[in-house]
């Protein structure tokens, strides 16, 4: 069943236009109401790693959407995605773009997203100007295409600069530059290369849990400026305009793609803490020196890239395989290793959630598990 209305959830959040945490109430969403109800236990599933990822190899998502107890099933699915970080389904051949959009919006609504939050309109990929013939005309569907990305995002390098590069710098959380960023994202691939093109996710919960208590206290007090100036550059090169109307929320307007969010945010679905500023949409940590900001951001990134045991790698096997993830607690990256092996394309629907906040009464994932008596796999050292 759907979560019932509850009292407003008083939590520290950012005042509009401020870079400091305040203790104002978040009037846009309600107290966490989801508890696992067990309704998905009857379906075949397995956890891909102890830390992150779950797969339902035989579930048909259209059957969940149309079931008599659809709200109960989708509420459980929302909690599962938020607790496991990312969930995978195979060969969803009956899932149309319209149903994919419905699924993502309902997951957000059933887990308590603000009533003003809908689906995101990407400022570049869904520009009102004509970008590419292959782009889906639906503004709430982002076409994820290797052909389109090369056209929109490729940059000419100086002759003296080698085009060779590493891939660690394309980890990100979707649209973190928006004032109200993404909650649930979905990607369904409809065209696969012969091999390659895997997607990886990493757990922000686990990154937080691997930081010592004194440093946890430090970063909990900080905020970060998120920005994406490269989108303006891409629009200028391509001769099209940034989409400046509401992008899934009245908070997400204009062409200044910049927002201030807490360094540690609380996921309202689980009540767990996650490190947030990692990846391609980050500018700087606020109210520290430039060197301190650079060191902190590099440290967060290093925890992710140097810890394969908090990552999961998904191999796209079939057309219409789909991944659904929670951007409030995960980071992801594509693997662009398939040049010459065919094109990779698919359809993405992204939900908009709440303005990020940090609740000092929230728990870390491992702290919550210990209180509940839940056994989690933990790293161990071999000396």
TrEMBL record:
Its cofactor is Fe(2+). InterPro entries: AtsK-like, TauD-like_sf, TauD/TfdA-like. GO terms for cellular component: cytoplasm. One of its GO terms (molecular function) is metal ion binding. The keyword Oxidoreductase applies. SUPFAM superfamilies: Clavaminate synthase-like. The keyword Membrane does not apply. Keywords: Dioxygenase, Iron, Metal-binding, Oxidoreductase. Residues 46-340 form the TauD/TfdA-like domain. Signal peptide: none annotated. Residues 1-37 are annotated as: Disordered. Belongs to the TfdA dioxygenase family. This is Taurine catabolism dioxygenase. It comes from Polychaeton citri CBS 116435.
